[in-house]
Write a structure and sequence with these properties.
The complex is a heterodimer of chains A (624) and B (134).
Chain A: H1 4-16, H2 25-38, E1 42-48, E2 52-59, E3 65-67, H3 73-76, E4 84-86, H4 99-102, E5 109-116, E6 122-130, H5 138-176, E7 180-185, E8 191-194, H6 198-202, H7 206-209, H8 220-232, E9 238-247, E10 253-263, E11 271-278, H9 280-301, E12 305-310, E13 316-319, H10 321-327, H11 350-362, E14 368-375, E15 381-392, E16 398-407, H12 409-430, E17 436-440, E18 446-449, H13 451-457, H14 461-465, H15 478-490, E19 495-503, E20 509-521, E21 524-533, H16 535-577, H17 585-623
Antiparallel strand pairs in A: 1-2, 1-6, 2-3, 4-5, 5-6, 7-8, 7-11, 9-10, 10-11, 12-13, 12-16, 14-15, 15-16, 17-18, 17-21, 19-20, 20-21
Helix pairs in contact in A: 2-5, 16-17
Chain B: E1 8-14, H1 18-31, E2 34-40, H2 43-56, E3 61-65, H3 74-83, E4 90-96, H4 101-107, E5 114-119, H5 124-130
Parallel strand pairs in B: 1-2, 1-3, 3-4, 4-5
Classes of the chains: A alpha+beta (624), B alpha/beta (134).
């Protein structure tokens, strides 16, 4: 009787939770009706387990159960499809020795209808019993069957009610305790309901959530993603939101993971059900893990960096591939761990290493930079740049020095080349016979001046470096200088040129021709200037220009004074030539007289000019 | 086109040399472009008379102006016209013995009045061309 089917049957029976339950009116009504219809003194609803039969309802019997061995019903349920009828138990070999037959209640007649659950299991029977033999009419049997159906129906009802109760209980349990927070929101994410767990999870009471919108609590950086997910819910039943930050009642941000179920269609809920959980711890530890993993992976796999650690005596505890590749030759037995690191550093840098390590220990956790020369296998020396950091054990005691290094030989070489070219440039600058200087374009301060400039302007080198280029000019020249500088800056020209008035230390003003080139000098934008004193040349030009002016005047005089009588004569002759009647004899004589006067005047002028020119040229010769 | 209407009401001759004025007068009279001709050896007097003419009548006037004059140069004369904002119905022809290009450029600084710059001697043909007299 303990085969698979029987096991299932027992389970089904137990799930009803009918065994040992108190009498209930619905069941008693049925048994009393059954006894009445069949006209028997006893009627029972018996439930058969593997050890006993329990009477859920009983008419005419005092005991609530009997052992399985005495059970008629156990027989009845063996063929669940049919009613089980014993007309006279005293003559039936199966029951004639049954204590229920031989003693109280002296069963003689028995009719039982199996009670078949919705799962198909015969859980027991509805039966009628008499103490004298008899038969049931067909009508009575039919009535008994339909009453048995009623019982089964009651059983099913009970099962459903229990299921509901159970799920309610489960829901209540979920909602009221535990780390999950359940909230019901409308489509605009306004809170409709928040479970009491909100106090535990978020430090906010359900009442405080009412009338508020979920987005008021979500971190600004996470709002967009959350909103986008929410929009997707319109055509989806359920989704899990990417972890987002939610403002805890104490003001801190907590990472929340939420599962949103769209129950808009469900009239009982009519909203979005959000099942949220605080996963801050998880997120934080994940992040830390990710960061440190990425950092270390980057470091150890690096092909350009040396990574090594040493103990406090300077013996290697770790060295990466790159370091071993390049400096492993220093340790011919191939074992680098445990060896001292000093041989990999040029002797003259040993003291530097010791100093740095001292600093590291004094301020552990802080990174110190140090440049070290190291020998290579081919007998050369390379320059390396290192980050030293002291690592402490859990007790805070320095345990290791971590060193991350880089070969910077190429960089140093390039720097040297730059220095050399700077030196060449510097020589060119300092040895120039013309005054030269470098000034900072932003502050206009002199940054360097050459010997020629010092000689010419009479300021000492120190004086120059405390001055700006404004101070070697008379005040009147400042606006011109400022305009030139502004243009240099705005147009981003790389050179400049022009003529300016400068002032020496003794106050003497000189005219200089300036040629300048923009360059970067000691990290600043500067202009190197070559100044040529053109005062003398300028004076020569001035003299020539004065001479020219004199000549121009002579030309003008000639043009006006010399040509005046000539032009007059030409005009008069024109009139005389014209054979016009308007000119009579008398006028003709007058015109001729004018011509003569003009000729005389012209003669006089020419004599004057010759005299003046002779005097001037004499003056010029004497003056020189 | 025998009876030609004079183009100007008054023509002013301004030259410190009376002979030049005399020659110019003859030329202007011969081509008959003016109702009245006035000659001045002092440009200041010419300027005063020109000023008074402009006060009461809208007459069209031409000035034949020399440059190199002792009392006032032709350029100063033009500057006064400019400063006092003379009417635009005064035309000026600069007539000078100068052959300096610079003098021509100076004359061109007064385009409101100066119609042309002529190097002496002035010829009837030139004058006709300048005032576009047929």
């Amino acid at each position: 009787m303990t085969d698979g089917f029987e096991k299932k049957r027992i389970q089904d029976l137990k799930s009803m939770k009918l065994l040992n339950s108190l009498p209930e009116k619905e069941y008693d009504d049925i048994t009393s009706l059954a006894a009445f219809i069949c006209n028997t003194p006893i009627s029972l609803i018996a439930l058969v387990t593997d050890t006993r039969q329990f009477f859920k309802s009983r008419q005419g019997v005092d005991v609530s159960e009997t052992p399985i061995e005495q059970s008629f019903c156990a027989y009845a349920i063996k063929v669940p499809q049919k009613p089980f009828i014993v007309e006279d138990a005293r003559k039936d070999m199966r029951f004639k020795d049954n204590p229920l037959v031989t003693g109280q209640p002296n069963i003689s007649f028995y009719a039982g209808i199996p009670l078949i659950s919705s799962e198909g299991n015969a859980l027991g029977t509805l039966c009628v019993i008499d103490n004298k033999p008899r038969k049931l009419e067909q009508k009575q049997l039919e009535a008994l069957k339909s009453l048995a159906n009623q019982v089964v129906h009651l059983f099913e009802l009970r099962k459903k009610r229990m299921e509901i109760e159970q799920s309610e209980k489960r829901f209540k349990g979920l909602v009221q305790s535990g780390s999950d927070l359940i909230a019901i929101l409308d489509f605009e994410a306004n809170y409709q309901y928040v479970s009491p767990t909100s106090v535990n999870v978020l430090g906010i009471t359900p009442e405080e959530f009412m009338g508020k919108n979920a987005f008021e609590f979500i971190h600004p950086d996470d709002k967009e993603a959350a909103y986008a997910s929410l929009l997707r819910l319109e055509n989806k039943k359920q989704l899990t939101l990417k972890p987002f930050r939610f403002k805890h009642g104490d003001g801190s941000w907590r990472w929340i993971e939420a599962i949103i179920t769209n129950l808009m269609e469900d009239s009982a809920i009519g909203g979005l059900v959000a099942n949220s959980r605080d996963i801050t711890e998880r997120i934080l530890s994940e992040e830390t893990l990710k960061k440190s993993e990425a950092y270390y992976r980057g470091l150890y796999n690096s092909q350009t960096n040396y990574v090594l650690r040493t103990d406090m005596e300077g013996n290697y505890t770790y060295a990466n591939k790159k370091f071993i590749e390049e400096f492993g030759w220093l340790y011919p037995d191939g074992k680098i761990l445990g060896k001292n690191s000093m041989p990999s550093i040029m002797d003259y840098h040993h003291q530097r290493v010791e100093e740095k390590v001292g600093q590291c220990i004094a301020e552990h956790g802080k990174v110190f930079k140090v440049e070290l020369d190291k020998p290579t296998s081919d007998g050369k020396i390379i320059t390396t740049l290192w980050d030293f950091v002291c690592i402490v054990d859990p007790e805070g005691i320095p345990s290791e020095i971590q060193c991350i290094g880089l070969d910077i030989t190429a960089r140093i070489k390039a720097e040297k080349a730059v220095k050399e070219s700077e030196q060449r440039y510097s020589d060119l600058f300092h040895l120039s016979p013309q005054p030269m200087w470098v000034y900072d374009i932003d502050t206009l301060k002199f940054m360097d001046v050459n010997e020629a400039a010092i000689k010419h302007y009479r300021y000492s080198y120190e004086e120059f470096l405390n001055m700006t280029i404004r101070e070697i000019r008379p005040k009147s020249e400042i606006p011109k200088l400022e305009a030139a500088i502004l243009q240099l800056k705005q147009k981003e020209k790389s050179y400049s040129s022009g003529e300016y008035l400068h002032k020496k230390k003794n106050g003497q003003e000189i005219i200089v021709e300036i040629r300048g080139n923009i360059l970067f000098y000691k990290g600043k934008k500067a202009e190197v200037v070559l100044a040529t004193d053109i005062t003398e040349r300028y004076n020569h030009i001035k003299a020539i220009e004065a001479q020219n002016e004199k000549l121009r005047k002579i030309a003008w005089t000639q043009s006006h004074v010399v040509r005046a009588p000539l032009a007059r004569m030409m005009g008069l002759i024109d009139l005389l030539k014209e054979d016009s009647p308007s000119v009579d004899q008398k006028e003709r004589e007058q015109l001729l007289e004018h011509v003569f006067q003009s000729a005389t005047e012209f003669d006089e002028i020419v004599r004057n000019i010759v005299n003046t020119t002779q005097q001037n040229s004499e003056n010029y010769t004497l003056g020189n | 086109m025998d009876e030609k209407e004079p183009v100007y009401d008054i023509v002013f001759m301004v030259d410190d040399d009376p002979i030049v004025n005399c020659v110019h007068q003859k030329i202007v009279r011969n081509i008959g472009i003016a109702n009245e001709i006035r000659s001045f050896t002092d440009p200041r007097k010419a300027l005063a008379e020109l000023r008074s003419e402009l006060c009461h009548a809208k007459k069209s006037m031409l000035v034949l102006l020399d440059i190199n004059m002792p009392e006032m140069s032709g350029f100063e004369f033009l500057e006064f016209m400019e400063l006092e904002d003379f009417n635009l119905n005064v035309d000026v022809i600069v007539v000078t013995s100068s052959i300096c290009e610079n003098d021509r450029l100076l004359a061109e600084l007064h385009p409101r009045f100066v119609r042309d710059f002529v190097t002496k001697p002035l010829k009837a043909e030139d004058l006709k061309k300048i005032i576009a007299y047929p």
